[in-house]
Amino acid sequence: MSLDDFKTIADIIQATLTSFAIIIGGVWTYDKFIRMREKYPRAKCTHKIIEKPLRNELLIHVCVEITNIGEVLLSLVSYDVRIYQINPLSTELERQITEKKFSITEGEREIDWPLIGSRKGELGKSEYEIEPKETQVLHFDFPMDYNVRGIQIYSYMKNATKKGREIGWDCISFYDLIHKEVSMPKPEETKQAPPKQAPRPVSPNQAPKKPNPSQPKPSEQAPPRK
After folding, report:
1. Which of 2, 16, 74, 146 is deepest in the core (most CB within 10 A)?
2. How many other CB atoms sit within 10 Å of the CB of residue 113?
3. CA dist list (Å): 155 to 26, 41, 70, 187
């Protein structure tokens, strides 16, 4: 076998290996970016709340944490955060429970809790872009009645990647509020001091006597008589 034959065989082997490498790379690309959908962002949402009693109301501060758990940039374009009252029950729900008619509406999956607060809005372009493995927190305030003891929080964060199709991430959580009754301190009563009495005039008979210089002072001892 001549040197040219070996060179031809080597070229064929190299071309074959290159073809296999291209096929394997295509399969990996399909598996990662198509089947596993890595070209689209993935996110995880969680809620945290802070409750602050006010004079006659309760302030609920909601923190919505969005973590980019994917491999591409995540861009938020709008938000929708709502608070529903769980406890105390609404008049209608309490009536249904009392009459043993409490049920979920046909075709629905959840109880229709009364809405007591909502925040909806648009986010500026490129205002909330989250890099992979990073977390962004959005803050919302909800003043509400002090009698509320249990709430449900719902949030929906819309993504900007797929235009023409509604896509985003929602999260639902329940909280039992543990605020205590706030009692405003009463102003202390100022006690009125009795009026001062004027000093009584001293009569001449009660005027103090002047000391006799011949008499020894009480602190001095008289010399013995001779």
Report:
1. 74
2. 18
3. 39, 18, 20, 43
What is the distance between the alpha carbons of residues 46 and 44, in angstroms, rounded to a whole number? 7
CA–CA dist 79, 64 (Å, integer):
10
- Cβ neighbours of residue 168 closer than 8 Å, sequence gap 6 or more: 156, 157, 158, 159
Which residues, given as ranges, of the chain have pLDDT below 50?
Answer: 181-187, 189-190, 218-226
Angle at 40 between CA 36 and CA 44, to 5 degrees: 90
Q: What is the pTM of this model?
A: 0.61
Pairing relation of β-strands 129-130 and 135-145?
A: unpaired
The predicted-structure confidence for 14-62, as pLDDT tens digits, reads as follows: 777 777 777 776 766 655 555 555 677 889 999 999 999 888 889 999 9
Longest dimension (CA), the chain: 165
